[in-house]
Predict the structure.
Amino acid sequence: MYEFSEKYIKSGFIDKFLINKRTLTSNEIRVLKNNNNKCSEWKSIFVSEFFDPDLIHNSQFHGTVIIGNLSKGVLKFHDLILDTGINNSLIISSVIGDNCSVTNVKYMSNYVTGANVILFNVAEINTSEHPKFGNGIIKEGEDENDRVRLEVANENGGRAIIPFDTMICSDAYLWSRHRDDSVFQNKLLEITDSQYDKKRGEYGFIGDNTVIKNSLIIKDAKIGANAYIKGASKLKNITIHSSAEEPSQIGEGVELVNGIMGFGSKAFYQAVAVRFVIGRNCQIKYGARVINSVLGDNSTVSCCEILNNLLFPYHEQHHNTSFLIASTVMGQSNIAAGATIGSNHNSRSPDGEIIAGRGFWPGLCTDFKHNSVFASFCLIAKGSYQQELHISYPFSLVFTDSKNESINIMPGYWFMYNMYAMARNSYKFKLRDKRKIKVQHIETDFLAPDTVSEILKAMDRIKTLTSLQYNSTYNDDEITGYLLSEKSNELTLVDTECMKKFGATIVKPSQAYIQYRKMALYFALKTLIDYFDSNTIEFSFKTIQDINKNTPYTQWDNIGGQLIPADKVKNLISSIKKGFISSWESIHEYYNICHSEYSIDKTRYSLFVIEKIYNKSFIDFTEKEINDLISIVSEVAQEIYNNSYSSRQKDYEDPFRNITYSSKEEMIEVIGSIDENDFLLTLKKTTNTFIQQLSRFSNSLK
């Protein structure tokens, strides 16, 4: 009756578990029978030397069953306290680790458990003859139609990727792009398939110290150590990564089907995920639905609907009325309540896409039309945006105007009006990163090569539009001078490329240009000084010249949260196509090499930024130009702190913020004192340190 359970088991698979095991003695069989246990073939049960048959009651055994050390003891997890042993359970062709507690497991077939595992009140723990554990592979006798694909970024499946248990966001993004390169796409498929055995006949796995209780169906699942699963409805064809350092948890009513869950992640309260890869230290909860999507590390989604998306690390989406469909969002994003990003049926097929840079924040009740593209750190005000958008201005506020069909864009909005949010984000992201092992590298600073590259392009765009619309006889230097002068304070521009049909009004472009310029220089000089400081290199024109010997990388890609020069990405793709890189492990090592070189690459880029803005080589700077640069950057550093402080201070001084409190003392008790704000205290300290570094830098170049 139970022959199918072992029909496909690989040769030698069982043998490794039989080391130091023996068959039952006649006395042990007698004790087991007296305890109301049944077995179709007692000689097919193998046990360790330390085996107490009195700890097994009212259970049935079929096929080859191997039991580790079993001695009287107690396993405890939170308020659950159970004796070691096997009680009221049906065990078929499975391996039970040392000193486990298996109680009321109605059906357990083809599974291996580690030591000290608790299985309590579980309806089914089963492995089929062709388990894949969430990996998008095919087994012997199957065809391509049996392969699990994640249809990310586009509902039509044109960007589908194959999940695998070590996939990170960088892999998913790399695979989802370059669709016109069939050689590259086929190589990635070959690499993935080569990692896994096509033969059927693997056992499911439950790691050491894992607890599974009050759950219904666990099928074709590989579960790591120290996981805690309570009340799960269905876990099917999945890998749940978990360890003592990064334990994962699954709670009541959760359904996870066809996917990979990262270390230290949690799924609670009726969350559903189907065809997914969820990164490290993520949470999905409160009925969230994640389908055909990749969710990057350190992300939290609740209540919402996420379909066909590729979401980089630190994605936040918390509200019952929001949904996000067919998007690639490059991390550090927050989707507000009522944001309905999914009206992508404006062609004859649901094949639209949205791409948004880091810090994508659509406001309350926003909706967009596919295809649209957003630069980094765009704040989209409440409204219905009924034409396709191409917002190329980073750190901008986008809003509608009831009087006009065009949209309004205020570039550099965050720098002018809410520096506290920008500066605090970088601070809080680092605090929220609970990953013990950081496979996915993530850039969290709002000023980095990707965003500064966008800033430089936006500055050029503002200059081009100013020349076209204000005075086409001005040369480049004259346009720059005009934008930096007070004469341009009332200037507005029209950019026809930002929205289909109606274009956009660019609000306060000269103020934005000034802010962009200052922030780019701040990034550049801070990067340069940080590099010198961290590598204990003396400031001098000679050392700067040494750094600048190699041509800087000026084009950067956000690859899953990691910033990599575009040329290095091209080199990776070429190496994969030629077979020089032939495993995902090697690809991850390439990411690591890029990360190890990131500091010097970013430093060279920072010199490029300074030289582009000043339009001359840094080693040719006059003392006046150096003083000008240091003065600007010092001013920006102080402004970042002052503006962050004043932004937060408004919350304490605004009379309408005070009306719910009976006294100032009560307000401070509720929201805390501004003078004890950890972020502001840290920012003040780092600002003072940086200004001192600037002074040393200035003195060393004189």
Remarks:
- The two ends are 88 Å apart (CA to CA).
